[in-house]
Design the sequence.
């Protein structure tokens, strides 16, 4: 009912900000597949275009596609487009994605505001069955509650395996799906598993016609969950041709401290510390294992969170212009 | 020029034959055929129209490397193996199982060749134990059209727990391996087996799929108090020794769009499941005065089931692969109009209900009477003809309600959401209504 950009200023969501910066670190290591300048970025830039601008500035990507479905507000989006290099394509992702040129190595971030639904999974499959080797693919969904909205008058909150299977279909429904898997933080894990399975299925279909040795695999690289407002979760990785597996292994992605290739995600916690406390902690960072962290009088939990995420935190300041 | 010793060779090559054989059967169907063969074994062990299969099981294992199906349903003897099971096509004098579904026509070979390039079949009966192992590439290169026994014992005495059949296929064809390794394929297949064999599952047969027990899918309709589904029982060919018994049940159940529609069951096998297509009369021509509309979610409570049973399976309205409907069957043609009548009756009721729900919301008198009086009954247990009945004068559980619908600008709604501290447009409507009502001093 409301376009999400009208409610939230994306630039003020600190956990999301940190996630963007970490993704940036991840994408920068794709160089092993080809120069980053030759990559195309595909995302949902909304009205802030934060992702588009960050990846352009830090990675040098200048071929940028931002998909936007709020057709009524096209003028405002055009007005806010900060870079000549960003092509704004108006329409639903499901209509736009198949029309893009997938022979280009791409970085694709489908950053939805909605919880998992069938149309999201279809978009995931579209990308998975078309992507070229070296393409990075990241999907974010909201993970508070899943709704089956097929019936306008009666939105069903999906809370049981039956309801899930009824909405998503039996094929997409894990054999053992407990009610606990559909609520709380566990729903984040479930959402990532379902997206991951959809990627694998899309690959299977496309790989059926590819010769052995050229089949493409999805190598999961990141998994995040956080809560700026609603709980959000993200899963991402790289499509790698079997012949280029060594490139992936040599890209140093495993060395990233936020590298996650399993069902467990990195939960992003914003530390609650004052600027003065930050400077106190900064002088001890990066941490020396043998010394540890002298946090006094900062609560240890906050200090540790700061030490974990400091490189990715936004710096807040208000300024007049 | 003599005509002797000059023949034109028309012998098919085996490779060509195998390729043709597997071409037009979907993978899922090939697997269902093999499950049917196990069930036919169970029917031979426990004959009759209403058997108890307790203690009998079928185990299926499928992954990217291997296919395996095992049962303890009595096995089949060397005579069947030598003369029927491995022959391509059905000899005219073949024996058949009463009420059978799969018959050793081409089902088993077709499935084996379709899946892979190597297979084994092992079977044990009371007196015999035998096995066949075939490497398809070697067999194709060898000139004779025969398979050899790898093991053969014809005078044993094997205990009941050893009797059964085991089929293994490996060296899977790449396209099959690709599907067998897919979670989606396996889950969908488990669901298909569950739906198609529900009657045998409810008769006590255990089917295990990759280590998981399949449970029967529920087919229930509401019955009780003043509510009753319609049941119509008819017999065709009553005077012959192979009468066809038909039982039609139509009624209402939980509102689940994916389960609504007609189910057609032949000798226990579900050949159509939750069908809402023209085949079962939906969406019949709109210009007919009382045609049946296209299926819509307001009919999500509709359930119709038609059972056909006959000891001679070729009389049933299914196609040759026993996986779908043969709409030209004479028996189907005479049952079809009856189904239409019942569909119309239920649809009329559901249209009324829809209007009532529009009016009362969740407090619909009919729905609350239904919840109070009726319970969901398994359709297998519903016997004896009766007509559709429902509570015609249900008591409203509360005052009469009407839904208000209107539209306002989104920005203005958001202003009120903020001001009233509520989270949805609906809540804005309800809260403002209550406020004005209170202000007018008309509150109860």
Sequence:
């Amino acid at each position: 009912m409301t376009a999400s950009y009208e409610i939230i200023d994306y630039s003020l969501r600190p956990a999301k900000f940190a996630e963007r910066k970490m993704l940036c670190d991840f994408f920068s290591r794709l160089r092993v597949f080809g120069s980053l300048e030759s990559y195309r970025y595909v995302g949902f830039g909304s009205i802030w275009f934060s992702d588009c601008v960050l990846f352009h500035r830090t990675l040098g990507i200048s071929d940028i596609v931002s998909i936007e479905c709020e057709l009524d507000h096209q003028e405002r989006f055009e007005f806010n487009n900060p870079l000549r290099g960003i092509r704004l394509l108006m329409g639903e992702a499901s209509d736009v994605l198949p029309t893009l040129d997938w022979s280009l190595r791409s970085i694709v971030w489908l950053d939805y505001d909605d919880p998992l639904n069938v149309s999201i999974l279809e978009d995931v499959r579209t990308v998975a069955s078309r992507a070229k080797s070296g393409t990075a693919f990241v999907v974010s969904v909201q993970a508070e509650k899943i709704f089956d909205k097929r019936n306008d008058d009666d939105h069903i909150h999906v809370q049981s395996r039956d309801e899930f299977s009824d909405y998503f279909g039996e094929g997409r429904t894990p054999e053992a799906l407990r009610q606990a898997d559909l609520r709380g933080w566990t729903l984040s894990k479930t959402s990532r598993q379902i997206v991951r399975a959809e990627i694998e299925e899309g690959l299977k279909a496309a790989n059926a016609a590819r010769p052995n040795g050229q089949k493409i695999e999805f190598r999961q690289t990141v998994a995040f969950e956080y809560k700026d407002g609603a709980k959000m979760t993200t899963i991402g990785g790289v499509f790698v041709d079997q012949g280029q597996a060594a490139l992936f292994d040599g890209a140093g992605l495993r060395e990233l401290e936020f590298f996650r290739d399993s069902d467990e995600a990195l939960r992003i916690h914003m530390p609650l510390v004052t600027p003065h406390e930050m400077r106190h902690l900064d002088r001890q960072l990066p941490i020396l294992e043998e010394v540890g962290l002298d946090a006094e009088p900062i609560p240890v939990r906050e200090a540790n969170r700061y030490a974990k995420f400091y490189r990715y935190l936004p710096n807040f300041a208000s300024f007049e212009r | 020029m003599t005509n002797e010793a000059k023949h034109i060779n028309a012998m098919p090559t085996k490779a060509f034959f195998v390729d043709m054989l597997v071409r037009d059967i979907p993978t899922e169907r090939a697997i269902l055929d093999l499950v049917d063969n196990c069930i036919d074994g169970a029917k031979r062990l426990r004959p009759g129209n209403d058997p108890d299969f307790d203690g009998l099981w079928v185990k299926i294992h499928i992954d990217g490397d291997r296919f395996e199906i095992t049962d303890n349903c009595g096995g089949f003897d060397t005579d069947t193996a030598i003369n029927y099971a491995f022959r391509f096509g059905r000899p005219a004098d073949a024996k058949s199982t009463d009420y059978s579904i799969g018959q050793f026509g081409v089902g088993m070979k077709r499935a084996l060749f379709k899946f892979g390039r190597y297979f084994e079949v092992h079977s044990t009966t009371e007196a015999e134990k035998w096995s066949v192992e075939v490497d398809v590439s070697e067999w194709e290169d060898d000139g004779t059209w025969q398979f050899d026994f790898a093991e053969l014992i014809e005078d044993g005495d094997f205990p009941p727990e050893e009797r059964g059949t085991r089929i293994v296929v490996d060296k899977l064809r790449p396209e099959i391996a690709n599907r067998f390794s897919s979670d989606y394929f396996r889950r969908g297949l488990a669901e298909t087996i569950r739906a198609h064999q529900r009657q045998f599952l409810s008769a006590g047969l255990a089917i295990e799929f990759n280590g998981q027990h399949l449970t029967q899918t529920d087919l229930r309709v509401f019955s009780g108090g003043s509510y009753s589904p319609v049941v119509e029982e008819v017999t065709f060919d009553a005077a012959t020794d192979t009468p066809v018994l038909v039982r039609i049940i139509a009624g209402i159940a939980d509102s689940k769009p994916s389960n609504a529609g007609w189910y057609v069951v032949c000798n226990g096998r579900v050949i159509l499941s939750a069908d809402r297509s023209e085949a079962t009369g939906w969406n019949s021509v709109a210009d007919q005065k009382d045609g049946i509309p296209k299926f819509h979610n307001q009919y999500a409570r509709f359930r119709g089931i038609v059972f056909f049973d006959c000891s001679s399976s070729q009389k049933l309205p299914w196609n040759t692969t026993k996986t779908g409907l043969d709409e030209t069957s004479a028996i189907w043609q005479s049952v079809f109009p009856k189904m239409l009548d019942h569909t119309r009756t239920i649809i009329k009721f559901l249209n009324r209900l829809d209007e009532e729900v529009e009016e009362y919301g969740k407090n619909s008198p009919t729905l609350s009477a239904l919840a109070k009086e009726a319970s969901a009954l398994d359709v297998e247990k519903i016997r004896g003809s009766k007509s559709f009945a429902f509570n015609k004068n249900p008591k409203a559980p509360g005052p009469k309600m009407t839904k208000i619908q209107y539209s306002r600008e989104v920005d203005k709604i958001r202003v009120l959401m903020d001001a009233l501290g509520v989270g949805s447009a609906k809540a804005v409507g309800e809260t403002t209504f209550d406020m004005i009502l209170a202000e007018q001093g008309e509150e109860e």
Remarks:
- DSSP finds ten helices and ten strands in chain A.
